[in-house]
Amino acid sequence: GCDTATNGPVCQIHYWLALAENDPSSAPVVLWLNGGPGSSSLLGFLQEEGPLLMNAKGGLMENPYSWTKYANLLAIEAPVGVGYSYCSRQVEGKPCKNTDRYTASTSRAALVDFFQNKFPEFAKNEFFITGESYAGVYIPTLTKEILDHTDINIKGIAVGDPCTDNKAQAKSMDSLWYAHKNGLVDDEIYNLLWNECNARVPNLMTRGGVHHTVHELNRELKTISDLEKRRIRAE
């Protein structure tokens, strides 16, 4: 469906809702947000936590670990302009406004429409916001927006591998730094590339002298892509 946000130019926020398998009337409502910025939350809904997942052939299969076993799962496509969400400005051939602050305001307005008009039976249920990646920005800004208005029964938030601040997280975004920290690149190679070639973000792939070496490093890292990279540990 679509929620209407009227905090500025009229916006229609597209959403999917999957009811809890057991007693949805009392189950919490869990909002899922993908990152990007600009990724559709249906990506996580259809690949991670939703009741039906896309298989390798483009079909659907049941998800034995679906969050709907415990909660009503809601995914919204935000900011406006993502997926099927749109704003009235697009009808005029103009872009939608999608700053982080405006996205938080629009998402809250859409949630108010969801709880007060679309599904008022869920208004008193516990509400949680979850997400990953750039949702590390979306979630705290949306949460503050909700708390400032106190019109939604929010109880908690959770975010995985969050992007919160580029400057503070710059090293962790660098594949060379990450590979060295976790024992995939030895000290000698790391020191050569990092200190002598100055191969670090944001210009890691643009320095001609190290382009080939970095390309080979990334290729080798891809050969172990079947491993869960968040669980690599150096001895």
Quick description:
It comes from Pseudictyota dubia. The protein has helices at 42-49, 88-91, 100-118, 135-149, 166-169, 175-181, 187-196, 208-222, and strands at 2-5, 11-18, 29-33, 52-54, 60-62, 72-76, 86-87, 127-132, 154-160. The termini are far apart.
Features:
single chain, 235 residues, alpha/beta, Rossmann fold, seven-stranded mixed sheet, 9 strands, globular, disordered C terminus
Q: Total number of β-strand segments?
A: 9
CATH superfamily descriptor of the largest domain: Alpha/Beta hydrolase fold, catalytic domain
Any idea of the CATH class of the largest domain?
Alpha Beta
Strand content: 15-25%
Task: Report how far apart the termini are.
Answer: 50 Å
Provide a count of the helices: 8
Share of helix among residues?
25-40%
H-E order: EEEHEEEEHHEHEHHHH
Going by CATH, the architecture of the largest domain would be: 3-Layer(aba) Sandwich
Give structural notes:
Belongs to the peptidase S10 family. This is Carboxypeptidase. It comes from Pseudictyota dubia. By secondary structure, the protein is an alpha/beta fold. It folds into two domains: 163 residues, Alpha/Beta hydrolase fold, catalytic domain (Rossmann fold); 60 residues, no CATH class. 35% of the residues lie in helices and 18% in strands. The strands form two sheets. Strands 1, 2, 3, 6, 7, 8 and 9 form a seven-stranded mixed beta sheet that branches. The protein has a two-stranded antiparallel sheet with strand order 4-5. The longest helix has 19 residues.
